Amino acid sequence: MNIITVSTQPFNDQKPGTSGLRKRVPVFQQRNYLENFVQSIFDSLDGYEGQTLVVGGDGRYYNRTAIQVILKMAAANGFGKVLVGQGGILSTPAASCVIRKYNAFGGIILSASHNPGGPDADFGIKYNIGNGGPAPEKVTDAIYDRTLTIEGYKIVEATDLDLDQLGTSTLGSMTVEVIDSVTDYAELMQSLFDFEAIKALLTSNDFKMCMDSLHAVTGPYAKTILEGMLSAPVGTVVNGVPLEDFGGGHPDPNLVYAHDLVELMFGDNAPAFGAASDGDGDRNMILGSNFFVTPSDSLAVIVANANLVKGCKGGIAGVARSMPTSEAVDRVAEKMGIDCYETPTGWKFFGNLMDAGKVTLCGEESFGTGSNHVREKDGLWAVFFWLNILAVRKQSVEEIVKEHWSIYGRNYYSRHDYEGVESDRADKLITELRAKLASLKGQKFGNYEVDYADDFSYTDPIDGSISQKQGVRIGFTDGSRIVFRLSGTGTSGATLRVYLESYEPDSSKQNLDPQVALGELINIADEIAQIKALTGFDVPTVIT
Ligand code: VG1
Ligand code: CO
Prior knowledge:
The chain is of the alpha/beta class. The chain has three domains: 3-180, Alpha-D-Glucose-1,6-Bisphosphate, subunit A, domain 3 (Alpha-D-Glucose-1,6-Bisphosphate, Chain A, domain 3, 3-Layer(aba) Sandwich), CATH 3.40.120.10; 185-408, Alpha-D-Glucose-1,6-Bisphosphate, Chain A, domain 3; 411-543, 2-Layer Sandwich (TATA-Binding Protein), CATH 3.30.310. The strands form six sheets. The protein has a seven-stranded mixed β-sheet, with helices on both faces. It is globular. The N and C termini lie far apart (52 Å). Bound molecules: alpha-D-glucose-1-phosphate-6-vanadate (VG1) and cobalt (II) ion. Residues 18-19, 113-114, 278, 282-283, 322, 345-347, 364, 366, 368, 487-489, 497 line the site of alpha-D-glucose-1-phosphate-6-vanadate. Cobalt (II) ion is lined by residues 113-114, 278-280, 282-283.
């Protein structure tokens, strides 16, 4: 088989963001655009010759086309073997699981996660290293540097492979094995949770659940595990067939985009438990009957109840959360006497802590929770964790969360997103905010006094690498916080995220609507950052 080198010219916009390179499909369809990025990944790696690469994606538009290109380029660049999910499907946590299980050199995951899919919507690509986790910044920086100087890429001349038939074939001197997308992941879940107890719960007459896969990648996983292995009634999983455009929706499991599930769970005769996951299967939303669990609370409850779950029987080494995530988990960690790490946004910062055995459970406010079973956040894992807790405690979701608040206090929490802000305006807002930071300490805003104001900087405790400018934090003397940062996953304009948090230890005051409880802080955020004036938006586009 012929290996050819195609000459190319650099693109100047291939800098990976919070989670890989995300662009509109037409951008990826430009001649050599995908190829340049893939070759830049390979050129930044050492010692992969003859090794195994894992490839799969969330099934969105362009997934199959991209995979064919990646297979031919992997063969031309000297990989020994590629494991690819059937039909090109691998959820992000399943890809992480497969990389680890088969000691692969790394993996390429095709996804733009919760962003919409389709010919005019979004596509994405990211590289995961041998521990199964997203490449750390030193690797993504090297990839980006390479994209700026690349002059050619290698590819074999071959016809497309059949991705739908399980089994092994060859491409040049490389082996391609099409693997079942679900099996390895399902086995891992079975090893972590008490499937018998969950099965008893799911088949009892007075328990109903709804899993909304939002036409995205978790459909086949949820059906096989929930409706198959765990005998939940057929129909428990809805929107369970991955579609290239996710049925035209945003595959984002939050109160805004998972509206059908929210309506069901807040309607009459609501099921006891509801859950949803995102495009690539790494996010989760947890709902009880008429009750929403914020992701930050979900992490705290999971940590507090970890002893009930087989996979955590060895104990919890420590926990971690991204900086904007609420401090609810910090309170649990403190009581348990374990370390709690605060990292920048994005899962790539948890990997080192997990590899070093310092962290067992971790999470982000953006509907992401996970453990050291893989090196990605894992939507269905969180669902099984909650089911396992429910099966053991035999209480409702609401009872469990409210009991948690009565013990640890409640961290009122909300995130306000301003999507599609003009980039210049968003940059100006952050620049002016940064300029103010030094003078904020000690200033009073209504009932609140600024305790500290800074731009979050993180030094990785394992390898000493430093990540600066990871979000502006303004802390108040009563423990409340406002955090501002710009999204690193969007594909057009800028998205401003404003994170608001306050702490309420008094049980009699824990039942307010968070927007009410945080009302004064919301106004202070606008006063300090001049959000309305500088963005031109009167209200956020999404509130979670
Ligand atoms: C967002 C979330 C972040 C998450 C990232 C990737 O990033 O805030 O917590 O890790 O998405 O998640 P940003 O930079 O837009 O705020 V996923 O499910 O899109 O892979
Ligand atoms: Co995702």
